[in-house]
Amino acid sequence: MGTYNITLLPGDGIGPEIVSGAVTVLNAVGKKFNHTFSYTEADIGGCAIDKHGTSLPQETIDKCLASDSVLLGAVGGPKWDGVPADIRPESGLLGIRKALGLYSNLRPSILKPQLKAASPLKDDKLESGLDIMVVRELTGGIYFGKKQRAADNSWASDEEKYSREEILRIGKIAFETAMIRQKRVVSVDKANVLESSRLWRETMNELAKDYPEVALSHMYVDNAAMQIAINPAQFDVIVTSNIFGDILSDLSSAVAGSIGMLPSASLGAGKRGMYEPIHGSAPDIAGMDIANPIATIVSAAMMLELSFGLLEEARAVNCAVDAVLDAGYRTADIMSEGMKKIGTKEMADRIAANI
Ligand code: NAD
């Protein structure tokens, strides 16, 4: 029996609907396993711009720092497309990752057998299954590098810069993760062109000496994108930079069926993490009760496991998701013939009822 304080950052678009679904499931876990989850809500993204004039108010950072963990929905939407770059909704997201020291992003892509029909790949590509863990560096690289633009708009530039220390710490997470999986790491870079990638590759090779049981190989990012599409079963752990990880994890999620299914965990040196679905705020379907809440619900399961050490409880959430899918219930994004279409709230309620 434990007490856990969670900061909820619902954000924009479908964020509030999917976070509310995850809370329903967490409350069912609390009831079943006798834990108390208490929640504090804070603003981030577009809704924070509207209320506070900034996408990341100091109050939000303080609440996150005072809590055991953070669950985020998503930020952004067309309403804020025109705001200055430094207060854009996405800058709030980058800012909170930095403020909480969350330098690694774990993004598992698993194709559930029940959702094979939802994958765009043909059956023969999926015979060996799909279970990829993308370990993405989260607080460095081009997203945080120096940004410049000429006063007359004739040029603009962004800097991709990595220190050896930054590469070592994300590499360690990847190797440790591989040790409890299939013991294979593919490091993805663009070392044929980029100096930062050459340092990345050298540092990964150096680190590999500490993990003799793990097989390390390297792949250029363009080839990696192609390989994920043509032979995804070859991958166990992929470790890569911030920008390449952003792109490749979306690709591996699409291969796994729907972006609405996949969770992520952002971790730093301590136990506190930030957990969020990998998709965005889906403004096109916001407020319609049709978004898939499963990515957020299984993100909460990752929080139970990685931040709170509640392995049985995390397993209960994943099993409840499987049970609802086995019973044929689907949200619109994963709907296929013969299945029963349900909305966001009903999906969360059914998962909670199966805990
Ligand atoms: P998106 O992920 O929001 O949506 C892409 C497509 O997937 C849309 O058709 C959407 O309806 C669908 N989709 C996404 N999540 C879904 C779910 N749970 N259930 C069913 N369908 C789902 O990406 P986008 O349209 O490129 O971006 C929309 C906004 O989100 C932008 O402002 C973008 O900057 C922001 N964004 C935020 C994050 C984040 O908060 N972490 C990540 C990516 C994009």
From TrEMBL:
Keyword Cytoplasm: yes
Keyword entries, A-Z: Amino-acid biosynthesis, Branched-chain amino acid biosynthesis, Cytoplasm, Leucine biosynthesis, Magnesium, Manganese, Metal-binding, NAD, Oxidoreductase
Enzyme class, UniProt record, top EC level: oxidoreductase
Catalytic reaction equation(s): (2R,3S)-3-isopropylmalate + NAD(+) = 4-methyl-2-oxopentanoate + CO2 + NADH
Amino acids binding Mg(2+): D222, D246, D250
Annotated PROSITE patterns: IDH_IMDH
Pathway: Amino-acid biosynthesis; L-leucine biosynthesis; L-leucine from 3-methyl-2-oxobutanoate: step 3/4
One GO location term (cellular component): cytosol
Any one GO MF annotation of this record: 3-isopropylmalate dehydrogenase activity
InterPro entries: IsoCit/isopropylmalate_DH_CS, IsoPropMal-DH-like_dom, Isopropylmalate_DH
Cofactor-binding details, from the entry: Binds 1 Mg(2+) or Mn(2+) ion per subunit.
EC number: 1.1.1.85
Site feature (Important for catalysis) residues: Y143, K190
Annotated compartments: Cytoplasm
Domain Isopropylmalate dehydrogenase-like: 5-351
Described function: Catalyzes the oxidation of 3-carboxy-2-hydroxy-4-methylpentanoate (3-isopropylmalate) to 3-carboxy-4-methyl-2-oxopentanoate. The product decarboxylates to 4-methyl-2 oxopentanoate.
Family of this protein: Belongs to the isocitrate and isopropylmalate dehydrogenases family. LeuB type 1 subfamily.
Protein name stated in the entry: 3-isopropylmalate dehydrogenase
Lineage: Bacteria, Bacillati, Bacillota, Clostridia, Eubacteriales
